[in-house]
Structures are given as C-alpha cells and as structure tokens.
Backbone:
C-alpha cells in the first residue's frame, strides 16, 4: 500500500519541565508562516510533566502568543527509522506584536548571553554531555563501558550517530556508560544558544530512534533510587571579541583566567538557588548525593567528578594548544531541567561573579563528607538542597537569582515545581523514579 504524506515541520519550545512541545505545519508552508510563526498560549507555561496544568496559574484561560521558528535552529533527519523525517525548528515565543514574551526560556538564554558579551566582551561556547538509559531491549548482560555493551545494542549507536549527524547536531562521541543499559552522547562545542538547541534535538532524536526499535530511551536523573544517575553535564568556556580563547591562563589556579575564576565564583555563590532550575524534579535529588559522581556541594575542583564545577582535562599530546580545549563543566544538571534556563542561569550567575570581581574560589580536593563543618566553611563548601521543595525555598531566598526573571515567570516556575512535589508526596522513591523513567 502506498501512502501519501505531507512532510511536517514542528515549531517547538521547551517548557519548565523540559518537555519539548510545539505545533506542526506542512513543510511546504514553512516560508509562508516563518515570519509570524504558529499560535501559542501563556498558560502552557504552567503545564506539568503529568499532563495536568497548575491551577490557579498567573495566566488563566485567555491570552495568545506566537511561536516564531528560528531557521538557524532546524534539525532534520530521515534516519530515525520513522516513516517520515524528524524535522524540528526551535522557536522563540513572542507577543502578538513581536515583542519578546517574558516566559520564553530561549529568549532568556539569548538575553543572558548578550548581556555577558556587552559587559565583558566574552561569548560563551558550550556543549551538553547527556547520559540516558534504554529499557525494553532485553539486552544480554554486559560489562560497564565495554565494547560488548555498545555492540549488543547494534545498530543503535551507529544509527543514532548517523541521525544526529544528518540533523546537524555535530555529534562527537557515543559510549556505553557505567550504568545498566546506560549510554552517553556528546556534541561538538557551539555557541551557547546553538548548544542548548542541540541538547533538545539530541534528546528528541534519541528517544524517537529508540522508540522505533521498540525500546524506550530515558534521560531521567535516576531510574531507581540507588541506580547510576543520568547527568547532563554542561561544559562552558569563553572566547573574546576576536574569537580567541579566554578561559585559560597558565598562571591562574588550575589554569583559570581571572575572569573565568570570577565567573565560577558567581556560579558557586548562587548554586543552591540555581539547583531548582537545573535539577528541576523530585527525582533529581536522588542523584545529587555525595559519592555518586554527580554534584552535592558548592565545589570547584580540578578534574574531580564529585565537584559541581569541574575543570576539565586538556590533552597537550603533540604540543596541542590547551587554551582552545580548556573548559569547565557544570555537573548539577539533569534532563528534567530546561537546557535554555539552565545555561541562562549559569551565565547570569557567572556574570554576577565577574561584575563583583569575585576571587577564584578555592580548588577543593578531598571528600567534603569527611570534613568538619569548620573546614567546609573555610573552603566555601555548602551542601546543595536535598529535595525539590528545599531547592525551591533556596531559589526564593536568593533575591539576586529571582531578580533575573519576571515575577510572573517565577510564579509559574514555582507553581509547576510545587505541584510536582505535592503530586508525588504519597509515592515512595522507587515509584517516583519509575514514574520519571517513563516520562523522560
Ligand atoms: N552518571 C554520573 C552523573 O550522574 C556521571 C558520571 C560521569 O562522570 O560521566 O552525573
Ligand atoms: Mg558520563
């Protein structure tokens, strides 16, 4: 049987629960709708991951917006195994007259990046390193990180790389990770906005390809309370106005330039409040625990995977220039956090640090859980919030972080997250992890 299909292109936005939603148009109509986009509505910002909407919310049932495709952010591939190509364009949400809408996280990221550049001359280069797990595949047992663990899933890994390549994501490496049925995929560093767009495209393409193999790919922070976590490690570095690397200074602590050090100090200062944004679900807090290689303290370290900000290694083999590789990794993020909002928060916090000329934080080695409170205090180590409600409280207690957003945005965010915590209050951690596994 032959079927006639009109290929669709989806104009998408990613919401406060990191769910990518949107509206699709016939590809042949894209030119006609490009300038005015598709309809969107304010109350969508109060959608939850459970197909419910928070009530009351600041928006109610009236109001209309437009979602305008950014054609630079189009990701199209015919290689996911679906009958028609995967085709998405990230959009910006605007008012009907085209002015920016206060709830658009992609616009927030653009604004944060632009403000950093205006104030410092620096631009952000970023990459999202994402871990996920496959279920429903009945793989034979295999060793962590082994060749066999990747090959048993064949052709999943090469098919994913082909789809990501065709979509323009610029994938770098795929591995079978440490956890059961866990994989990780990275993309080449890109400017901050493009990196966040790629992060979304990678999640969606990975899920679609797995679905077409009869499996589920989940990016949930924890598939079970004691399982290995799925992190989203956000790598960042800076270039100056001439495109020259500006993160590395061989005479700085662990190679950090003065500005990069001040940026890190700003991030650590606001990290407890930012956690609600970057680790945005109830299950996120099963991951952010000591000894999990995730992140649990306001901690900068040179190449330590327990730290929240990890200075990443550089390879100088063959005389390679370290300055272009040198980058810092924010590890307190997962895929329940909106990537635009997560990176925007990192950039805003870092900019606060640069504006205040904060000194580079101490580089901490060792295990904070073995230190006295006094020792922790001397090193600036504070435990990150241990639950989503505690993270929301920390967010609301940090006037600087709250000040980055419009009040109605904060109200929507807190509303969604409180709803999430309340909704799960009667479930045990295993049931909560299982629910998020199916949702992410
Ligand atoms: N799976 C760990 C996490 O939850 C990260 C392991 C690694 O360093 O890649 O972040
Ligand atoms: Mg990893």
Residues:
């Amino acid at each position: 049987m032959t079927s006639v299909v009109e290929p669709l292109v989806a104009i998408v936005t990613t919401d406060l629960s990191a769910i990518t939603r949107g509206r699709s148009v016939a590809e042949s109509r894209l030119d006609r709708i490009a300038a005015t986009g598709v309809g969107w509505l304010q109350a969508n910002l109060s959608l939850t991951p459970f197909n419910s909407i928070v009530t009351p919310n600041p928006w109610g049932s009236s109001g209309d917006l437009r979602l305008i495709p950014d054609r630079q952010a189009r990701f199209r591939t015919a290689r996911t195994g679906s009958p028609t190509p995967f085709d998405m364009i990230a959009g910006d949400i605007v008012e009907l007259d085209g002015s920016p809408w206060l709830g658009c996280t992609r616009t927030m990221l653009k604004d944060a990046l632009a403000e950093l550049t205006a104030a410092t001359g620096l631009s952000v280069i970023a990459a999202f390193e994402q871990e996920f797990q496959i279920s429903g595949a009945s793989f034979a047992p295999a060793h962590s990180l082994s060749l066999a663990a990747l090959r048993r899933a064949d052709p999943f890994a090469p098919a994913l790389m082909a789809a990501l390549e065709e979509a323009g994501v610029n994938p770098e490496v795929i591995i079978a990770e440490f956890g059961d049925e866990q994989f990780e995929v990275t993309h080449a560093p890109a400017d901050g906005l493009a990196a966040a767009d790629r992060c979304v495209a990678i999640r969606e393409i990975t899920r679609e390809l797995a679905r077409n193999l009869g499996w589920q790919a989940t990016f949930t922070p924890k598939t079970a309370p004691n399982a290995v976590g799925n992190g989203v490690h956000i790598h960042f570095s800076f270039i100056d106005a001439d495109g020259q690397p500006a993160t590395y200074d061989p005479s700085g602590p662990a190679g950090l330039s003065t500005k990069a050090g001040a940026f890190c100090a700003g991030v650590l200062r606001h990290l407890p409040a930012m956690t609600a944004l970057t680790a945005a679900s109830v299950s996120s807090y099963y991951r952010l625990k000591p000894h999990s290689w995730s992140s649990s303290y306001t901690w900068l370290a040179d190449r330590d995977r327990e730290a929240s900000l990890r200075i990443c290694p550089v390879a100088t083999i063959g005389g390679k220039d370290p300055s272009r590789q040198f980058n810092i990794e924010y590890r307190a993020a997962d895929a329940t956090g909106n990537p635009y909002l997560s990176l925007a928060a990192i950039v805003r916090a870092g900019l606060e640090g640069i504006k205040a000329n904060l000194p580079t934080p101490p580089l901490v080695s060792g295990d904070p859980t073995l230190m006295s409170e006094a020792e922790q205090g001397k090193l600036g180590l504070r435990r990150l919030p241990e639950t989503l409600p505690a993270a929301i409280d920390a967010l609301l207690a940090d006037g600087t972080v709250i000040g980055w957003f419009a009040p109605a945005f904060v109200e929507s965010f807190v509303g969604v997250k409180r709803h999430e915590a309340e909704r799960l209050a009667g479930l045990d951690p295993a049931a909560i992890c299982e629910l998020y596994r199916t949702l992410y």
Summary: The two ends are 35 Å apart (CA to CA). The chain has a mean pLDDT of 97.
